[in-house]
Amino acid sequence: MTTIAIELISSSHTFLIRMHSLLKLKVIAVYGACLTTFLLLTTGCAGSISSAPRETALQRVLKSGKIRCSYLVYSSYFQKNPNTGKLSGIFYDVMEEVGKDAGLQIDWVEEVGFQSIFPGLDTNRYDVFAAGLWPNTSRAKAASFTVPVNYSAITAWVRPDDHRFDSDLNLIDSPSIKIATIDGAMEDLIAKTSFPKAARVSLPELSPFVQNLLNVVGKKADVTFAEPMIVAEFLKTNKDKLRQIGADKPIRIFGNCLAVKTGETELRDFLNVALLEIVQDGRVDKILKRYESSPNYFYPLARPYVLPER
User: Which of 244, 192, 238 is nearest to 223 (CA)?
Assistant: First the structure.
């Protein structure tokens, strides 16, 4: 074979190799373009699906014509007849007034304990916890709260012959002192935050609050925290069994509020308007008097206005 022929064959081989490489690059480029287009399309579809508007709690309420409420049995605030199951109490009456004004049915769907309130809201088992709840920073991380219906003052209660804490409630904060509490209830939170060194005699979350008082009377605990109205009802049948400390200096003062799922601001705002309406037209005052066993146990809301002088 001549030198010229060999050079021609070599040049042809090189040309074919280059053409093959160029074809591979074109194929890769086309594949890349197709893949990019596919990803853009699918991402756009996913984005449009995820951005579809979510039905809010208020929209669900207005569509169904019902407010689904949970409750917790707690003295005058919410009562349940053990024989008939009939519901009553301050917040039962308040919510029924709200439903009447709004043309909505109040559906009492579930009795809960303190530790079950927020999981039930999160999983949409009900729209509102409607038996009255005292808000604090910890609870505000788990739910949104309405304006209060009224206020409660929380004080310490001990046996009549126990004067260890009369001069200084800080003496409760000792490992030798036992505080009667119910898991997740406010007296439990007060014990943990204000008296962390004290021991707690804890009851399960659905326990009746009266058991806290009985634990103090029976010397299983030294002290508990409660509002006077609750203890007054207990003392009707257990005269002189407990004594209040610091009536003029409550440990806490809380508003009694409704709670909704975090983020459901439309429903919260709707309830705020409804509650303020029945506060300002005097219906809440009538409801409180209906359940107040002694004068001045309830702290009403101050009016947010001043009447002009005539």
Answer: 244
